Amino acid sequence: MTKLHFTLLPCSIFEERRSMSSRYTVQLINLFSVLLCLLAIFPLSESEKVAGFCPAAYEELESDSFSSKLLIKGGTVVNAHHQEIADVYVEDGIIVSVKPNIKVGDDVRVIDASGKYVMPGGIDPHTHLESESGVTKTIDDFFSGQVGALAGGTTMHINFVPPINGSLSTGFEVFSERAKKSCMDYGFHMVIVNWDEAVEKEMEIMVKEKGINSFKFFMAYKGIAMVNDEVLLKGMKKCKSLGALAMVHGENGDAVAEGQQMMIDLGITGPEGHALSRPPVLEGEATARAIRLAAFVNTPLYVVHVMSIDALEEIAKARQAGQRVIGEPIAAGLALDDSGIFDPDFTTAAKYVISPPIRKAGHDKALQAALSMGVLQLVGTDHCSFNSTQKALGIDDFRKIPNGLNGIEERMHLVWDTMVESGLISPPDYVRITSTECARIFNIYPRKGAILAGSDADIIILNPNASFEISAATHHTRSDINVFEGKRGKGKIEVTIAGGKVVWEDGELKVVRGSGRYIEMPPYSYLFNGLDKVDAAYLSSLGAPVQRFKAAT
Ligand code: URP
Ligand code: ZN
Ligand code: ZN
Fold first, then answer.
1. pTM
2. Sheet strand arrangement including 245-249
3. What's the 492 CA to ligand 1 centre distance in angstroms?
4. Cβ of 395: how many Cβ atoms within 10 Å?
């Protein structure tokens, strides 16, 4: 077993502490001095520096430092369909057996989980790690974001990949390279920003050769990523033909641009102008439009970051009519309201800038209720984190504040506290909305999202009697700000096991850089079941073309 010791570099210069092999420590310190000189010549970009900020510690180990055989004893094993008191035996990253009283030899590491819940690791369906945003880049890269995720009980995430230089393939290659530092499993969604034959061809390649089964279309961000209805329709049709899921960011981008100008004309330049310029009605309108276009094409639709009653009511209506629409609220939408964006302190207010915006109190409760009743199906985060320096790019104009907030580390705790501790849902429902449903929608169940023999050993142990508190001072991701600052609650994830390795335990994080795997997601999830029959029934119901006799001349 090789254990690497870690040494802190001065955090006033770097926000990430890197571990060092003890035998290389001296050389690395020398290298560090050289680096300091280079930094004086080539300063770090905005996304790389956080003056005076130092995220919580982690330790980097090598893969063989972990026991390959584990027995989790006596916990309440929770799946989306069932919970029972049982043991879970893990070998080489796979769950081998789930039943009471498993007997093992001395070579097996035993973890006592009595009185605690043993559940599948969280899967975050919506992240933006290491992604460009206007003039800056998200503060968390694949490694730092995942370090936080593991400390918060999430063991897989699906990251959005934009086209680069107009090419989906280049986007895929660049993000695959960035993700090589991963310490947990991940998948990709792709973003479509325009339409031509090359895009169509590349979508096919992504699905058939690269393990992508979902494509996101932005109905907002005019002039940057927004697509019009023609592109959206063509994209939906292509998705359907490939068995891929169409995803939408539902906001009316033209109207948002008008709203922004209106705020500026009124002299409202602070963060509150962001929320005021894109009210719920614009989210409701775009969500309704996307739903109707998906109905026209008869293809499943996934609405990302549902933030308002207006949008959720459109989803509820469509589902009630039998349409295959999935709605994803995010942790911030469930746990916060818009009061923070009106804070007189710019840095505090700017933390809340995300699109669609966090809504007035009442929307949060409605989103929780919709989630508890199955109107909305799973919880994401939209983790797209920036530090206070980056947020300050918009100090004079809210339109320049980078859009996005944190959540990858906080989601599992916040959802437990908001939904289970409050009595809205049961532990099996918690597993469903934080893990299983995501695995089913993106077609990787039961490899992921379950504690079953044969599933990947991505497991958390949650103590319902312990509590958590969120703060930028103690979180593991990189930003010096946390939108959930000061939030406390019941239910603490005490152990995270990713790929069969105990990476989070006793408040300590031990990760292996490069151990995360790219999880290919095959097309034709359950959402496509029977769609061909519905199409056939539609065609035969048309009563057309009508056979007509030509009149004799
Ligand atoms: O404000 C947000 N949501 N930023 C990330 C990009 C997106 O729209 O998902
Ligand atoms: Zn979006
Ligand atoms: Zn997003």
1. 0.92
2. 122-127, 154-161, 185-192, 214-218, 245-249, 301-303, 325-327
3. 28
4. 15
